[in-house]
């Protein structure tokens, strides 16, 4: 058994931090995460720098980390302009985001869902050969404005999106962290059954209410094997009021190790990276494993 961890702290984790993290420091975090065994890393996003000033140097981070052996550098793109900038910078793995919830899509990308879906169709039709696509469906479980998102709406959104292209990876995103394991298990089962063999799946969870790790376990038991996580438990969507950090990568790695599931991640090296990230000025860290392992080391 093997699970793939996608490290998203350099994007989702850094974006809400106010004090600008120097480019050299961002590159060092990517390098150290790679050295800890993480091979898929979301290094930033090509969004309007006025909206997310922390990530205005994503192109430079992408360029400086391109030499890392086996690194699959993923970047988030919200629209056609972002795609053009990402491709110009040399990106070969794009994560496009659209919300299941109408209200969140308008808050996040300033347009309705139908416009985002049309934009997505035009984008994937024009991509160069060899460019991989992650389709992140934000608010797959809950919307900060409308509450619980019905499973039928999620399936309907995916019907429209996957009609444009099926050979993508779909990320089911618990944007607010208000999902529960039963909801995650149920929706994942329905998605895998409805789109069987047509696409690949990932789970993106937040730990706002302390259920992030339980939701990862539920998604795993339902059949998903790719999980987004952020070292140090950093993160939080600026356009989802109240949402806090992503589930901590070190917590996910520790859980899977205990379950006998391989991840290829060196936990001790990862915890060192997470501790540095948690200490960043302006960061709001989460997770439990860092403190637990530090306590064990202090007691021994």
What does this structure look like?
With 300 residues, the chain is an alpha/beta fold. It has a single domain (4-299), classed as TIM Barrel. 42% of the residues lie in helices and 17% in strands. An eight-stranded parallel barrel has the order 1-2-3-4-5-8-9-10, surrounded by seven helices. The protein has a two-stranded antiparallel sheet with strand order 6-7. Strand 9 (200-205), helix 9 and strand 10 form a beta-alpha-beta unit. It comes from Craurococcus roseus.
Number of helices: 12
Mean pLDDT across every amino acid position:
94
For the largest beta-sheet, the strand count, sense and barrel status come to: 8 strands, parallel, barrel
Regarding CATH, which class?
Alpha Beta
What is the count of structural domains?
A: 1
Strand % is 15-25%
Stretches where pLDDT is under 50 for at least 5 consecutive residues are none
CATH topology (level 3) name: TIM Barrel
Indicate the percent of residues in helices: 40-55%
CATH superfamily: Aldolase class I
Query: What's the CATH architecture name?
Result: Alpha-Beta Barrel
Shape: globular
Strand order of the largest sheet: 1-2-3-4-5-8-9-10
Q: What's the SSE pattern? A: EHHEHEHEHHEEEHEHEHEHHH
Number of strands: 10
**Alpha-carbon Rg, integer:** 18 Å
Task: State the distance separating the first and last CA atoms.
Answer: 32 Å
The computed structural class is: alpha/beta
């Amino acid at each position: 058994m093997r699970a793939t961890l996608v490290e998203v702290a350099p994007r989702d984790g850094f974006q809400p931090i106010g004090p600008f993290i120097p480019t050299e420091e961002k590159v060092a975090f990517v390098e150290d995460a790679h050295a800890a065994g993480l091979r898929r890393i979301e290094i930033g996003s090509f969004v309007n720098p006025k909206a997310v000033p922390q990530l205005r140097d994503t192109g430079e981070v992408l360029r400086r980390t391109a030499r890392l052996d086996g690194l699959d550098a993923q970047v988030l793109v919200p629209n056609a302009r972002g795609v053009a900038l990402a491709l110009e910078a040399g990106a070969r793995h794009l994560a496009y985001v659209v919300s299941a919830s109408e209200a969140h899509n308008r808050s996040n990308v300033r347009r309705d869902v139908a416009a985002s879906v049309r934009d997505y169709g035009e984008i994937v039709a024009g991509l160069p050969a060899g460019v991989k696509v992650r389709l992140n469906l934000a608010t797959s479980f809950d919307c900060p404005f409308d509450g619980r998102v019905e499973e039928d709406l999620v399936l309907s959104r995916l019907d429209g999106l996957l009609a444009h292209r099926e050979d993508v990876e779909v990320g089911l995103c618990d944007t607010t962290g208000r999902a529960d394991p039963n909801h995650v298990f149920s929706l994942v089962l329905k998605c895998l059954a409805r789109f069987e063999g047509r696409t690949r799946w990932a789970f993106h969870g937040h730990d706002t209410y302390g259920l992030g790790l339980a939701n990862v376990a539920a998604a795993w038991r339902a059949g998903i094997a790719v999980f987004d996580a952020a070292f140090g438990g950093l993160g939080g969507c600026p356009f989802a009021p109240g949402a806090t950090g992503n589930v901590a990568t070190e917590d996910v790695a520790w859980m899977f190790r205990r379950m006998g599931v391989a991840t290829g991640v060196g936990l001790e090296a990862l915890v060192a990276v997470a501790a540095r990230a948690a200490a960043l000025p302006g960061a709001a860290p989460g997770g439990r494993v860092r403190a637990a392992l530090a306590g064990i080391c202090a007691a021994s």
